[in-house]
Design goal:
The complex is a heterodimer of chains A (about 775) and B (about 300). Chain A has about 775 residues and is of the alpha/beta class. Helix content of chain A is about 30%, strand content about 25%. The longest helix of chain B has 22 residues. Chain B is globular, with a radius of gyration of 20 Å. The chains are: A alpha/beta (about 775), B alpha+beta (about 300).
Chain lengths: ~775, ~300
Amino acid sequence: MPVPDVAGSVAPGTAAAAVAGGASPSSRAARGLLGAAVARKDGPAKILGEARYVDDLVLPGMLHGATVRTRAAGGILERIEFGSGIDWDSFVVVTAADVPGINATQMIEQDQPVLAEHRFRHAGEPVLLLAHADRGLLREAVEAVTLHERADPSPVFSIDDALALRGEVVPGNVYRDYLMSRGDLAAGEAAAEVFFEGRFETGAQEHVYIEPQGMIAYVDAAGVLVVEGSLQCPYYVLGTLTAVTGRDAGSVRVVHCTTGGGFGGKEDYPSQLAAHAALLTLKAGGRPVKLVYDRAEDMLATPKRHPSRTLVRIGAGRDGRLCFLDVDFVLDGGAYTTLSPVVLSRGVIHAPGAYACANARVRGRAVATSHPPNGAFRGFGAPQSIFAIEQAMDGLAEALGMSPLELRRMNMLRPGDRSVPGQTIDATTDFDAVLDQALHESGYLEKRDAFAEFNAANAAAGRPLRRGIGLATFHHGAGFTGNGEVVLASEARVRANVDGCVEVVASSSEMGQGSTTTLCQIVASALGLPLERVSQAPVDTHDVPDSGPTVASRTCMVVGLIVEQAARLLRAELIQKAGLPASGADEHAFAAACARYLDGHPRLEAQARYEPPANVQWDETVFEGSPYASYAWAAYVAEVEIDLATCEVALSGFTAVQEVGKVVNPVIAAGQVEGGVVQGIGFALFEKVAWGNTGTMANNRLTNYIIPTTADIPPVQVFFQEQPGGIGPAGAKGLGELPMDGPGPAILSAVNFALGTRISSLPVMPEDVMAALSAHALRVAA
Amino acid sequence: MSAVDPVSGQPPAPWYRPVSLADALSARARWRKDIVAIAGCTDLMVGWNAGARRLPPVLDLSALAELRSIEAGPDSVTIGATASCASIARHPVIAGRLPMLVASARQTGSVAIQNRATLGGNIMNASPAADNPPVLLAYGARLTLASVRGIRTIDYASFHAGYKRTLAEGDELLVSVTVPFPAERVTAYYRKVGTRRAQAISKIAMAALIERDDGAGPAVVRNASFGFASVGPVPLPAPSLSRSLRGLPLSGIDRAQVERALAADLAPLDDIRSTAAYRRSVAVNLVLAAIDAAREAAPRG
């Protein structure tokens, strides 16, 4: 690994500024770059079809790989039978016996084998890998393999069955059991005058990144195992590859290809897939092997959003002030641990919502079932628990005879409040301003009245249309939870070349979210250069340091901060040692300084490491402290129109207002919000995973797993507020996951408003609306 | 040929692309159902891509210009079996006289699919969820089938014999579909329900053609015909419903009556896309919506 010429450990804020010293860059080109809607760096290559995704790569002598998977929902693998009529000698065949190192994906636990050997826990688990130059023969060979399995007699397919131990996937069926307890629950209950209790559920959700998962592996001339592919977290993949192959990090390289979307779905699974491709190429003597899933295999085998079940008990005084909150939150982790513990902790921390409550208890469990493991998905547990608390707030408002708006206004977190986890809300927070703008832009109050009248008139006239409007208020913590960022200690570099061109050297992976552009904007701004002079170096673990995974809304805020500091260090080095003028230097002066510096030094680069702000401290054992360095705040309003003839719910309007600190690129930021809202609309109204009788996805085609089309999405009104409170560059906060939290609760509130129903689970499909209307009619009749 | 089929890795399957209908019929007579007639391929390719099977021998009808024509007469329009959904949707006479057919053609997959998918393929593929059959049933379409033995016509309503089975003989090809123009004083009502507004496979679809008798009293149903998708093993007409509505005043049809008739006509199932209960209930709602539309169109409501 190259040794940086300039290195420093920087903390956000004043310490870094002291290290960097010097006056601010004054180039006209760089002025205002933070906050400018510059065009995406990766845009032209993608528009022109020049970007190369993993399936576009064709290497000499390349083989294609395929996977043979278990069929039963857990059991014992007794024998693998290779059928007749296939020339098996012409195939590369890999089983668990071919794993040279540890046969386990390196996540939080090491319970998930890369290839099942004897005992397996779910259908669709990889057992056998095949490779051949001819894809047609490969398909026939996969069909000619028979796995002789002894199926588990009692697989577990639901959270309730897992908790009731109707079948046991792992002893006790619980991966993690967390408790976050504050104040005195009994005293809170005693003080409360009005109560609400509810049970809320959310379903699995498929990521539907536009590019299915894929990897290509080979051994290069130097004997290095190279794996290139579609992924979010190069160093996670590297960790699994070194463990599985027994090689050291110097003889394994992970390279990020152009990646067509991730949404969390390419956080843990690519480690499995990379290991498979690597095992095949190693067995094939280093010949390149490409392993790319089609949509059906991708949807069958890869993780989904965790289904959830949440019980909420909540109580308030007659004035609406919350007295207590008791939440029992459970996630379906599937058959292996993977990322469930951290998804669970984020879900637990967000379970009290964005409200103040002195007496609160949140218990969170991730349970084992016989489904394929569930994993990371935009929001990471928070959309599930925020859905439950938001619905409970609506239920409590109804019990109080208050409007949902009043109840939220009464209890929302404000500066100086302590959140349930224990964080003091900072002085820059203005949640009221966010809510006010959402009300204003959506016309919430006027529409509530107008829709109620419309519905009454239509009911009286026997007309089938109903309208509804719903509100969700929430916040989302950015970056790794708790001490995660401390443990990560992410690093990134900035490197300048002799011509004055600068590279961002980080493991953050562009996958459509715009991180390359955003990071380049930050570095160009810090160096006083025009954006064209800055690019991101290819993400290759032999070149880039570990900047942490590309997840958790952390790239702009955390990695952006690191590269900004590295850029300042580099600039200070040039000022000090190469005569770069401390102010007023343009890109020519910068290039000249680079050239002078590189005349006497082998390279010009600066590295920085993240250190969290001092006030962020977290006690994992009792879930107490400040779990996130920054929060984004939001108020979303959904409007629906429902046709009782078909019970189809059409979105007729959507307003998303959020406070996200500095908006580094307004077009990219608005794209994140629009995309997240659409994904949330899918989660709420369209996307239902149908489980087959062995616990895998039965509707694993885009013909039967319905995601919304543009025809189903109303114009999404997106508004940003920018308070200076974020820890990222110029006060930026995390943004990517936030918009996933609000649509679910806002839409369901709108549906229940329109129909007078008490639907409490997502997705709410037309069939569910119909069933709820029947139940409602029965209740009304009784 | 020495080329290898890119999908199967095998030598190419027989791919026969005749340039005259006579040659196509000879091929059909020789190989009967061992050769698969293909046109737009928008459904078959999906199935072939999903399986590992080698391509079957195919009879490619795409070179037969005579099967692509759309000809309007005084009382009907005759649509060639390989006319595309796009060409149907933009045909001026169809647009003027058969609006439900424009609507169903425009609801068949995406625009790209509509450019390739053919009306004949949509019928002969015999999916119960196909988009255009309900409309053809409601309009009372007739099919023309040809073989080396000659030509015959058949009522479309009697064509589907069971799940993925039709009354076409092994040596026959569908050559055209004739759709009569509806009478005066009709209300056409078509609705496809697929959860999303585009590129959906129907959970249920219904086409209704309700002809009024605006005599001296309140408007009554002179004739009503229907077509349903995704509520049984084949695209279904609703003969009991049609019979039960005949002669009834449009303002006096109640839900229970429609429910009873449809119980005899439809056979919905629970499947991966929806539930039998939902389909049954929405079928009734759509029929009632069509009757409402007819009543609103009547001069004396």
